[in-house]
């Protein structure tokens, strides 16, 4: 019988883990590297995260939507329906153990620091921290994803029973992209705060919907999807232009709070298309292997990184708000060590148990899994992270 660690890693793909690794590196940089260190090499290395690392969350969102969309397409194509209850239970096995253990430790050993958003810690338990506030503000993105998963579990079985057409699915997803942007413009004009615009699901659903739309294209328009992935130069131009925008335009400015989040998901989608099934991922192992290793542990790292850094800095008797090089190194080291431990000791055993109690269903291959060119069909609505 395979070990918990083996069971949890057998289906992993390096290209997708590279995307996760990049996303978590950016997110850590946003929380750790926004002040000069006094050590030029460290400052330069951390500059992207410190400048626009918040967009790492959008990279997570687009990837989540893409993977969940593929999962739903597979099940509905094979069975003609979608089991929302089974989907929800499998998601809970993956996400909740690491999160709830973190919340217990945060309640016992957590520390307050300047800049934290006020709110009850219990809001994270019920995944409403993006509306109610929280003393651990970096977890807002988990609420958006959990609410997205809940919508998947509730709406997709209904759509499957009604046999919604693929074109209708694409139209719904396109509408979400437009409505989210329109809501941001409306809320900004009415003076809503930057935190509300960044956190609340109705303003951020476009990043997840964009990922689902990519999954829809892969399944229903595979030739067009492949042609898009092969357009490397335009995709690189999108990434370069998006990076320049994100680095220059503050997310708290009117342009950042409106068009900026659209730029972020377009930029993230281009990165995903550039990495997905890319030959360089295997050839440039010196880059992709360490980045994929971070990706394999990205959920644990993201959940635990702020608390791990706080406790490590306090243990050394240093000031957490100091931007020096020593502090930066300690923060990253603590985040990585604790995140990997949480993944290996909590997430992997939980996934092992999940796959024994509720095994993943055998599914036919799709173009993202192999070079098979058969075009799959489906007539249902589709929607971080593989199941």
SS element count, helices: 17
Strand proportion, as a percent range, falls in under 5%
Order of helices and strands: HHHHHHHHHHHHHHHHH
Q: Summarize the biggest pleated sheet.
A: none
N/C terminus separation? 21 Å
Identify the overall geometry: globular
Low-confidence stretches: 1-10, 362-387
Number of E-state strands? 0
Helix/sheet category: mainly alpha
Overall radius of gyration = 20 Å
What's the helical proportion of residues? over 70%
Please tell me the overall pLDDT: 87
By oligomeric state, this entry counts as single chain
Tell me about this structure.
The chain has 387 residues and is an all-alpha fold. The longest helix is centred in the C-terminal third of the chain and has 33 residues, at 325-357. It has helices spanning 4-9, 14-32, 40-52, 56-79, 84-109, 129-132, 140-162, 166-189, 194-199, 201-220, 222-230, 232-248, 254-275, 279-283, 285-296, 298-315, 325-357. α2 runs parallel beside α16. The protein starts with a helix and ends in a 30-residue tail after the last helix. Helices cover 73% and strands 0% of the residues.
């Amino acid at each position: 019988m395979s070990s918990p660690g083996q069971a949890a890693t057998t289906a992993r793909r390096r290209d997708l883990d590279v995307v996760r690794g990049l996303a978590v590196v950016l997110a850590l940089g946003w929380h750790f590297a926004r002040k000069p260190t006094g050590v030029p090499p460290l400052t330069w290395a951390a500059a992207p995260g410190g400048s626009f690392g918040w967009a790492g969350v959008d990279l997570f969102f687009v990837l989540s939507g893409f993977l969940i969309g593929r999962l739903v397409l597979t099940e509905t194509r094979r069975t003609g329906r979608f089991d929302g209850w089974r989907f929800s239970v499998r998601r809970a096995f993956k996400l909740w153990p690491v999160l709830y253990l973190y919340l217990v430790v945060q309640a016992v050993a957590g520390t307050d620091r300047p800049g934290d958003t006020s709110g009850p810690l219990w809001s994270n338990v019920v995944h409403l921290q993006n509306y109610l506030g929280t003393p651990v503000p970096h977890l807002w993105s988990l609420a958006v994803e959990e609410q997205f998963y809940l919508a998947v579990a509730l709406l997709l079985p209904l759509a499957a029973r009604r046999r919604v057409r693929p074109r209708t699915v694409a139209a719904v997803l396109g509408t979400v992209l437009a409505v989210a942007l329109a809501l941001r413009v409306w809320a900004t004009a009415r003076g809503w705060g930057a935190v509300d615009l960044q956190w609340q699901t109705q303003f951020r659903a476009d990043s997840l919907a964009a990922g689902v739309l990519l999954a829809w294209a892969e399944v229903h328009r595979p030739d067009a999807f492949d042609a898009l992935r092969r357009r490397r130069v335009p995709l690189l131009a999108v990434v370069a232009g998006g990076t320049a925008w994100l680095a220059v335009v503050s997310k708290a400015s009117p342009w950042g709070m409106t068009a900026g989040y659209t730029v972020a998901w377009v930029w993230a989608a281009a990165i995903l298309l550039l990495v997905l099934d890319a030959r360089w991922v295997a050839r440039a192992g010196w880059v992709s292997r360490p980045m994929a290793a971070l990706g394999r542990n990205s959920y644990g790292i993201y959940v635990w990184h702020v608390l791990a850094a706080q406790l490590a800095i306090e243990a050394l008797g240093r000031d957490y708000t100091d931007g020096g090089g020593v502090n930066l190194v300690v923060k990253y080291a603590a985040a990585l060590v604790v995140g990997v431990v949480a993944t290996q000791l909590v997430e992997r055993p939980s996934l092992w148990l999940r796959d024994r109690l509720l095994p993943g269903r055998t599914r036919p291959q799709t173009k993202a899994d192999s070079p098979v060119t058969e075009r799959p069909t489906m007539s249902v609505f589709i929607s971080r992270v593989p199941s």
